[in-house]
Each structure stands twice: as C-alpha cells, then as structure tokens.
Amino acid sequence: MAAADGLCTELPMWVTNAWYVAAWSHEVEPGRLLARTVIDEPLVLYRTAAGEIVALEDRCCHRFAPLSMGRLEGDALRCMYHGLKFAPDGSCIEIPGQKLIPHSACVRRYPAQQRGSWLWVWMGDAAAADPAAIPSTVALDDAAYRLQAGAIDYAAHYLLIDDNLLDLSHLSFAHEKTLGLDMPQWADERPAMLPLERGLRVQRWLRNHPPRGFMKKLGERVDVWNSYDFLFPGIFLQRTDFHPAGTAERCGGGAPDTAPLFHRVDEQAVTPVGERTSRYFFAAGARAADIDPDRVGRLFAVTETAFHEDKALIEAQQRLIDLDPARRMLPTSLDAGPTRFRRLVDDLLAGEGGRRIPASAVGSS
Ligand code: FES
C-alpha cells in the first residue's frame, strides 16, 4: 500500500532494537499493574516479590483481553476474563478446566531493566538486548542531588519533540519568560556537535549572562557551560554549569577546567507511544550543595511551565503538518542537530529493514 510519502506502509516504522523508557520506577508499585504503550505495542509492567521488573505483552493470548485488567498472584499474572495464568517469563501455567497447556499458550516477555529511576524496555530481538547499553542517569533519590520529576503526554510524533531538544535556540523565543529569560545567547551561539554511537553530544558557552533570582548570588555576570548527550530514541542528558564571567574566554571556548559555581542537571526521555502520541519523562534539579529543597521546587516549577510551552507549540505544529503533509519546511542553520539526528534514525530504521521516517508525519526540509 502506498503512503502519502510514496513509501510502503507495510515496512516497519519503528526502530525495535533499542531501549525505551516505559515509566518512572515509582510508577510501578509492588502488587500493582501498569499499562503502557511503546511503539504501538501494549505492555503491562509489574514487579516480582524480589522487586524485579516484568514487562509482558498486554494482550492475553486467549481472547486478547488486556492482562493489565488482570490480577497478580504472587509473581504470576492471571487474566481476569477467563482465568489463564502466566508466569513472569510469559508462559501460560494454568488454563481453567484444561490440563494440557499448549506451547503456543504464552505472551511475549520484553527484556526490562531498572536503571537510575527509569524503567527501560527492549522492544526488539531479546537476544540483542544489552543492559550495558542503557545510559547511566542520576537516580531521583541520589543524595548528591536534589531532583524533581514529571511526565507529559504529547499528541505529536516523538521526532518533533526530539527536534525541539536538539535545537535549543528555541529557548530564547518559546521560553522567553521562563527558561530563556534574558538569554538571547541560546539563539545567537551555535553549539559544537560531536557524533556519538546512536546520538550526538551538543556543547556551547553562553557568555556574560546576568543571573536572576536566587542565582544572583553567583555574581553580576556568569559564563554558562551547557553540554548534553542526546541518544536514540530521545534520551536527553544535560549538565549546565555556571562559572565566573571570563571562564569561557580563558578556556578558549572549550570545556571548563574548573569546578562550577552551580551545577544544574536535566534528564529527559522521549518515548514514542504511537505515530501521533508520545510520552515525555523529565527530571530537573541541581547538585544538592548548590540548592535548598524549597528552591529546587521553584526551579522545577519554571521548568515544567516551559515544557508545557513546548507541548502547546509542538502539538500545534503537528496539527499544521497534518493539514498539508506534502508541504516542505524551510531549512536554516538552526536545524543542524535535528537534521543529523533524523539521518541517524533513518539509518537505524534501514538497519532493521524499516521504512524511512515518514515525512507525512514529521515534515521534511
Ligand atoms: Fe484472557 Fe480469556 S482473554 S483468559
């Protein structure tokens, strides 16, 4: 079947061999079932008595009732439509009224790991799932930091959110009253970009910035070193360090070689739910020595407000793309990060025999 972009819609449209963030770890409480959809596949998540995370297909193999509407019995999960019971490995271990359990009586188990405070699921070939490939992140209860966390559901393709995170020039405009307040440097300074396996490292100095609010204690002017790794499918691991003005010059525009006055941490994950739905997980805060608990609450509130500014813009952008999917976007020098990342995603899709990123869904330039 031909799609609007002239490509075969029957080819897979998702990269499956990847770790995706399915939930915050605190969302899967002992004894509870959590339903989540990742790349159009319904999952049910729960913990065994030992605390191990289990991710099963949320579709009973009998008559396709959601297992997330079932009941935990020890470490096993019983479908509460007709009572089939499944072990944590997905095999059926009981069929009411029937002694023989066929081998085909099973649901798919997805490799799952808890790392930091995120629950990761591997959506592809289980034999290829390497837990060592999961990036390290700061746990929310790490005493060295004060972090707060949230999540936002988007009615938009995940790559539009990735575009946003790969081009922070928008902070000066979309967030002119929040994260970009008094910071025209976000739009004016072009970052350096380095290739990573499955991602990009983006770094820049924002020089001579006048701190506001409680950050005024840092001095009249500071130089801000912003560095983040952005990894497939949308893992954003950012550190923002405030240094005395003049540090950028002294370091020749390279990475700082002294300890920062203030060390901010932002960790986010964009997870595709479906072609027009995504979930955005985020944590924001700072080194515990730099901020008190009350102030981290305010820092987080500003950050969350800014993320809702992004949501309003990106969902509106998605609606306009959908109104005229064939319309081409105008490329500018701001688009270097998003363009490079989309090329990487296309390569990952091609590596799995999938179709290219559908321009009809996310636009093209
Ligand atoms: Fe699950 Fe029938 S649908 S037991």
What's the SSE blueprint?
Elements: E1 19-24, E2 34-38, E3 41-47, E4 53-57, E5 71-73, E6 76-78, E7 85-86, E8 92-94, E9 109-110, E10 112-115, E11 118-122, E12 145-154, H1 158-166, H2 185-188, E13 192-196, E14 199-209, E15 222-231, E16 235-244, H3 247-250, E17 262-274, E18 277-287, H4 293-323, H5 336-351, H6 359-362
Antiparallel strand pairs: 1-11, 2-3, 3-4, 4-9, 5-6, 6-7, 7-8, 10-11, 12-18, 13-14, 14-15, 15-16, 16-17, 17-18
This protein binds FE2/S2 (inorganic) cluster.
Identify the notable features of this structure and list them briefly.
365 residues, alpha+beta, Rieske Iron-sulfur Protein, Naphthalene 1,2-dioxygenase Alpha Subunit, Chain A, domain 1, seven-stranded antiparallel β-sheet, four-stranded antiparallel β-sheet, 6 helices, 32% strand, binds FE2/S2 (inorganic) cluster
Structure, described:
By secondary structure, this protein is α+β, with helices and mostly antiparallel strands. The protein has 2 domains: 115 residues, Rieske [2Fe-2S] iron-sulphur domain (Rieske Iron-sulfur Protein, 3-layer Sandwich), CATH 2.102.10.10; 207 residues, Naphthalene 1,2-dioxygenase Alpha Subunit, Chain A, domain 1 (Alpha-Beta Complex), CATH 3.90.380. It is 19% helix and 32% strand. It contains 6 helices and 18 strands. The strands form 4 sheets. It has a 7-stranded antiparallel beta sheet with strand order 12-18-17-16-15-14-13, covered by helices on one side. It has a 4-stranded antiparallel beta sheet with strand order 2-3-4-9, with no helix packed on it. A hairpin with a 2-residue loop joins strand 5 and strand 6. Helix 1 crosses helix 5. The radius of gyration is 23 Å and the shape is globular. The two termini are 24 Å apart. 37% of the residues are buried. The protein binds FE2/S2 (inorganic) cluster (FES).
